[in-house]
């Protein structure tokens, strides 16, 4: 299994459980690893034959910036579902961080892995 990845994608969104958090936009960031097979793209040098990280990034920026989740857990699950369904990804690992949430911490969030490696 090969991996196409996106690192430190940053998006502003409405997220959080407290009333004040529903009134502002906060930054989230994510790392995403997507299982794939890169050999056909490598042999043809055709981006149509691979998982296009630009297309995935643009879709996630659009989805996250329009969302209004309460928990990072919910956002992470919804991102995983979107990537699996819309981009036919069978395995992924996602780290979703909310760096402003705990002032004493550099970052907090969740890491999830979904699907089967092969
Ligand atoms: N496991 C989680 N813990 C907390 C979350 C969350 O989404 N998942 N959210 C909050 C608040 O919204 C927090 O980010 C505000 O500082 C607290 N704990």
Task: Please tell me about this protein's structure.
With 118 residues, the protein is α+β, with helices and mostly antiparallel strands. The chain has a single domain (2-115), classed as GTP Cyclohydrolase I, domain 2 (2-Layer Sandwich). The chain is built from three helices and four strands, in the order ββαααββ. It has a four-stranded antiparallel sheet, covered by helices on one side. Helix 2 (53-66) crosses helix 3 (72-87). The longest helix is centred in the C-terminal third of the chain and has 16 residues, at 72-87. The structure holds ligand LV4SOB2L. It catalyses: 7,8-dihydroneopterin = 7,8-dihydromonapterin; 7,8-dihydroneopterin = 6-hydroxymethyl-7,8-dihydropterin + glycolaldehyde. Its EC number is 4.1.2.25. Catalyzes the conversion of 7,8-dihydroneopterin to 6-hydroxymethyl-7,8-dihydropterin.
Q: How many DSSP-defined strands?
A: 4
Main beta sheet: strand number and arrangement?
Answer: 4 strands, antiparallel
- Placed side by side, the strands forming the largest sheet appear as 1-2-3-4
Number of helices: 3
* Unreliable runs: none
The separation of the N and C termini measures 6 Å
The oligomeric state is single chain
CATH structural class: Alpha Beta
Output the radius of gyration.
Answer: 15 Å
Percentage of residues in helical conformation? 25-40%
- Integer tally of domains: 1
Q: Which band does the percent of strand residues land in?
A: 25-35%
- Under CATH, the topology can be stated as GTP Cyclohydrolase I, domain 2
Give the integer mean of the pLDDT values: 98
Bound molecules: the ligand Nc1nc2c(c(=O)[nH]1)N=C([C@H](O)[C@@H](O)CO)CN2
Cα shape = elongated
Say which CATH homologous superfamily is assigned. Answer: GTP cyclohydrolase I, C-terminal domain/NADPH-dependent 7-cyano-7-deazaguanine reductase, N-terminal domain
Structural class: alpha+beta
Element order: H for helix, E for strand:
EEHHHEE
């Amino acid at each position: 299994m090969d991996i196409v990845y996106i690192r430190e994608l940053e998006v502003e969104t409405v997220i959080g459980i407290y009333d004040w958090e529903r009134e502002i936009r906060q930054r989230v960031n994510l790392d995403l690893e997507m299982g794939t097979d890169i050999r056909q793209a490598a042999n043809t040098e055709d981006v149509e034959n691979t998982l296009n990280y630009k297309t995935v990034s643009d879709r996630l920026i659009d989805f996250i910036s329009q969302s209004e989740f309460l928990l990072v857990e919910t956002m992470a699950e919804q991102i995983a579902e979107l990537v699996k369904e819309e981009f036919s990804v069978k395995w992924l690992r996602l780290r979703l961080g909310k760096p402003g949430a705990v002032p004493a911490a550099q970052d907090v969030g969740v890491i999830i892995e979904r699907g089967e490696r092969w």
